[in-house]
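Hi V.,

You were right to ask for the full record rather than a summary. Here it is.
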Amino acid sequence: MICFPNAKINLGLNITEKRSDGFHNIQTLFYPIGWHDALETIENRAYRKGADKVSLAITGIKLGSAKNNLVSKAYRLLDEKFNLPPAKVHLHKTIPTGAGLGGGSSDAAFFIELLNRKFDLKMPHAEKLKIASELGSDCAFFIENKPVFAQDRGDVFSSSKLDLRGTYFVVVYPAIHSNTAEAYRGIIPAKPKHDLKQVIGEGPKNWKEKLTNDFERNIFFRFPELENIKSKFYESGASYASMSGSGSSVFGIFNKEQDLKEFGFPSEYIIRGGAFS
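Predicted structure:
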């Protein structure tokens, strides 16, 4: 059985306060985009007792330990509850890590759905959300996998009617890995100047002036090339451009399809063009 976990972008990201548990409360809108990994699993009939019940092979973008991958962790969480059959898993990565695109979280959430279907676990939606939340703050979003406003740690959702189909996204990942913990250093939480839901509702025409990502100031200072990408998008007619999450991907939203060669970035930096549907 195979599935194709997709990425997301953040539209606005306000860091509103430091929590007593050491995390931060945020406000953002998660929007899914059509850039995918591939994830496949079969039952491991060659399993020998005492071995790890989940065998994960990773191709594509090089990652760290398969044992510590969120896909493996998702299997173990479900195995504790359902005593799953041993599984062989193949993850082909195209969504980069440290990019603010949620690729690892998406893999884990889609794997929860995949195991639920393959082994007929009959998990209700609320249970899938709960398990995904144990793996990471934005994992639960990919169980929903539709535009949602997120608050608290980014794991409390409310629905959004935002529909950007008919527009075009260009996402650039300039091979800079952004560490989320480091991105928070120097951040001073504050109440946002503009109400996020209201601004989103006004549509892209007002986003340039009102929709902000609080991480940009620190990250752009460290990596000015990211700010240059954002500026280039606006010079090329983007209705809105921003860094996604804590970076380092930068995206632009356009009203018509773009010729990626005209942006002037090295071709390997252009990751995705086109509309999500």
